[in-house]
Amino acid sequence: MIKFFEKDPYSPIQYVYEISRILYKTKSPYQEILVVENPYFGRMLVLDGVVQFTEKDEFFYHEMLVHVAMHAHPEPKRVVVIGGGDGGAVREVMKHDCVEKLYFVEIDREVIETSKRFFPTVSCEIDNEKVEIKNMDGAEFIKNHKEEFDVVVVDSTDIIGFAKSLFTVEFFRAVRESLKEEGMFVTLSESLHFHRDMVVDVQKTMKLVFPVVDLYTAPIATYAGNWWTFSAASMKLDMREPRRSMVNGRRFYSEEIHRQCFLPEKLYDDLLNNRLDW
Amino acid sequence: MIKFFEKDPYSPIQYVYEISRILYKTKSPYQEILVVENPYFGRMLVLDGVVQFTEKDEFFYHEMLVHVAMHAHPEPKRVVVIGGGDGGAVREVMKHDCVEKLYFVEIDREVIETSKRFFPTVSCEIDNEKVEIKNMDGAEFIKNHKEEFDVVVVDSTDIIGFAKSLFTVEFFRAVRESLKEEGMFVTLSESLHFHRDMVVDVQKTMKLVFPVVDLYTAPIATYAGNWWTFSAASMKLDMREPRRSMVNGRRFYSEEIHRQCFLPEKLYDDLLNNRLDW
């Protein structure tokens, strides 16, 4: 058993995993890709030294990233997933039968290939005929689409390096313009424990662009700080209540979780107005 | 800067902290006590190699441990805290002006002395005149009190070694007998991510004894698995709604958090009936 020391520049706690096998290691034009096996978590995907997900518990993240907006929208037909080359977000979107078209925009095709090879339960919907893979920059893709999408999901790596372009006011404006009237947008926004400044920053940037902005959380064991946030925005619809019946195949997300996961109004308000004493 | 490798036998991820200073190290009859300083978390109390709390974020745990039962009870006057020698739980209980008497039962007086010396903002209410310190085994203390307490709080170390005696059916029976008719009991019960068997075990043991048993969670950054659970029980009153106005001096806990923190009914039911596929 060897030890893997996670290299997360944003975490005040370093996470160390036991590794029983190194299954794959390569360097794509964008990042170092590593697949390892841990006795508890099973297989794990590691990009540039940071754990992206584990076989055991990836569904917490992927379900919470996707299903809140997808259930808050009255009828999402045209959806975009940017990043998430593993296919976990794609799998969750495709549980919604109403989806007619999903653009899967992942700049690094080697992540997709790695996931197909080592994570079949995560990548299982990538080849669905409704899914169109675009190996390009997400910001570039979005710029060329107007009033076309119902839900846009960003499943990037941490807000650092090339992922930063997916958190700028310019990108958020392009997303807004790509959405239909009832459109919704959701993106990861780091940990409320460890990266509060980043959370607030993403929120404030979103508020410059979208009429409705909100914040919800989920407990993700392998992400630094764990109390993980998702920033959600829409053109007019509130996202705190599901508008549709629950899709099948959920393991954690539910109607009750949807209602509970949003920050209480006062805490949310205090967070954005810098009134928390922590 | 040196690295401190946490020695938590129950965690599939090992947590590593940078240590700028070792402030104190001793061995009591019960455990090894260590006080260290970390650039992000400030001072940290470590018992037998496991981080108990940090100056920066201890209030998440202490508030969530104490205030749910204390606000669900109509008027808690006589309260017991077992363990929690640092005084964090005592501090939170004493925010409730209705409290007339608090027995603070900590077997290891050296933890109390260490906290008084190194954690003044945590230990600040230990010398309150309403607080009576009992340096004895919590199970022994409880056995000798009948229908006397409004709220009993267990703030032990992990469910291992000598803390195990605070999670047996015998102990829970003694707690029940020590409570008044509207009495309430709350104890930590480990992480829903990493220690689900323990959570279920504590819950099932509680259900053998108490008419009302429930489970709520809070995000604690420094505890393995982070998605931390608290098991709560009472003689007759439901604990999901606060019955009293909020006390002053809270930093995280609120009326909304109280309502949100309990497991959704279906998830709770699936957990106890072994119907979760994770």
Question: Helical element count of chain A?
Answer: 9
The helical percent of chain A reads 25-40%
CATH class (first level) name of the largest domain in chain A: Alpha Beta
- N-to-C series of helices and strands of chain A: EEEEEEHEHEHHEHEHEHEEHH
Query: What summary fits the major beta sheet of chain A?
Result: 7 strands, mixed
- The appropriate CATH architecture of the largest domain in chain A is 3-Layer(aba) Sandwich
User: If you consult CATH, what is the topology of the largest domain in chain A?
Assistant: Rossmann fold
| Order of strands in the sheet with most strands of chain A | 9-8-7-10-11-13-12
Topology diagram in text:
The structure is a homodimer of 278-residue chains.
Chain A: E1 2-5, E2 14-19, E3 21-27, E4 32-38, E5 42-47, E6 50-54, H1 58-72, E7 78-83, H2 88-93, E8 101-105, H3 109-118, H4 120-123, E9 131-134, H5 138-143, E10 149-155, H6 169-178, E11 179-191, H7 196-207, E12 212-219, E13 227-234, H8 255-261, H9 265-272
